[in-house]
From TrEMBL:
Transmembrane segments: none
PANTHER family, per the entry: GTP CYCLOHYDROLASE 1 TYPE 2 HOMOLOG (PTHR13799:SF14), NGG1 INTERACTING FACTOR 3 (PTHR13799)
Gene3D superfamilies named among the record's database cross-references: 3.30.70.120, NIF3 (NGG1p interacting factor 3)-like
Record-given protein name: GTP cyclohydrolase 1 type 2 homolog
Family label: Belongs to the GTP cyclohydrolase I type 2/NIF3 family.
Keywords from the UniProt entry: Metal-binding
Keyword Metal-binding: yes
Length: 365
């Protein structure tokens, strides 16, 4: 039996909540985390219609990209669409979980899905985030090194891109005098001791600090573990906004427009004048991406595909890079397929349904 909290944990492992924007509200928003999951409905938005769909399908958990509770609620009376959605979910004991900007920011998240839809390869994060990594240095007797390293690796330290179990070490002499109250692993109280130790350096995502430290202290033989924790300014190449990559074959503007319409199922889309060259390098950002305009330009994109561009922002395109606004819903609707993939790969004892409700409030005539 899988509980709601198990599904939440799996999705939060994939897209750590620590990677969401400060303004965001990505978490379990409605429901009892201890309840058993019957069936899950995955969707871009959680509207009243989506809750109705969940009721019809017998789903007691809705996983949505956009948080239904985004602004503070002051009442719950059914006065607004959000309040009605929540009341209906509560009445039918349906939980609602939102996985939002944290899923935008992971390298295998919303933008990776958009790139996959558009056949964009050799991708990298367009605007990697910094200040998300911590370095741990610790000192350990040579003979205990492997055991302690194994423990901190298992807790999430030492991963750099496609490389795991990364560490660096220098062997030297540790010197200490245990007090009369101490219970030393090596040496005697009141007597200065010298021992051969390794100084180990590993890095880890800062949000894993507690688990890494717990693992270190548990596996280390010393009563007092000498260590340094250093916050790094480095960029984390695997976490950030937008994505850039290349089409397998360069396309003419006309071909690219057709490709975009076909792959994203568009009726129409807005764009600036196409560059006077074949389109090969494409930057994307699902949802509102105008804040990445200069990054996309600097990265040499031929086209930047995003949504929610304002009139004056379209003027920021130039002869080298066209701006494309496909619509917010259209750029992110495939996020539900991402939820579907993650959940069906992780769990086999309940069904996951892709919502069939079109939640796009925008119509094209
Ligand atoms: Zn969005």
């Amino acid at each position: 039996m899988t509980k709601i909290k198990d599904v939440v944990r799996a999705l939060e492992q994939y897209a750590p909540p620590a990677y969401q924007e400060a303004y965001d509200n990505a978490l379990l928003q409605v429901g009892d985390p201890e309840a058993t999951v019957n069936r899950v409905l995955v969707t871009l938005d959680c509207t009243e219609e989506v809750v109705e769909e969940a009721i019809e399908r017998g789903c007691n958990l809705i996983v949505a990209h956009h948080p239904v509770i985004f602004k503070a609620l002051k009442s719950l009376t059914g006065r607004t669409p959000v309040e009605r959605t929540l009341l209906k979910a509560l009445k039918h004991q349906i939980a609602i979980f939102a996985c939002h900007t944290n899923l935008d920011h992971v390298h295998n998240g919303v933008n990776a899905k958009l790139c996959e839809k558009l056949g964009i390869e050799n991708t990298r994060i367009l605007a990697p985030k910094s200040n998300l990594l911590t370095k741990l240095e610790f000192f350990v007797p040579v003979e205990d090194t492997e055991k302690v390293l194994e423990a901190v690796h298992a807790a999430g330290a030492g991963q750099i891109g496609e490389y795991t179990d990364c560490s660096f070490r220098i062997t030297g002499t540790g010197r200490f005098t245990p007090s009369s109250q101490a219970n030393p692993h090596i040496g005697q109280t009141g007597k200065t001791e010298e021992t051969i130790e390794n100084r180990i350096e590993v890095i880890f995502p800062s949000f894993k600090q507690n688990q890494v430290m717990r693992a270190l202290l548990k596996a280390h033989p010393y009563e007092e573990v000498a260590h340094f924790l250093i916050e790094l300014e480095n960029e984390n190449q695997e976490v950030g906004a937008g994505m850039i990559g290349e089409l397998e074959t360069a396309l003419t503007a006309e071909e690219f427009a057709q490709h975009l319409k076909k792959q994203l199922n568009l009726i129409t889309f807005k764009h600036t004048a196409w560059p006077d060259k074949l389109i090969k390098k494409v930057a994307v950002c699902g949802g509102a991406g105008s804040f990445l305009l200069s990054k996309a330009k600097a990265a040499g994109a031929d086209v930047f595909v995003t949504a929610d561009l304002k009139y004056h922002e379209f003027f920021e395109a130039n002869s080298k890079m066209a701006l494309v606004d496909v619509g917010h819903y259209e750029s992110e609707v495939y996020t539900k397929e991402l939820f579907y993939d993650i959940l069906t790969k992780t769990f086999s004892n309940f069904a996951v349904d892709l919502s069939a409700t079109n939640t796009n409030p925008v119509r094209h005539s």
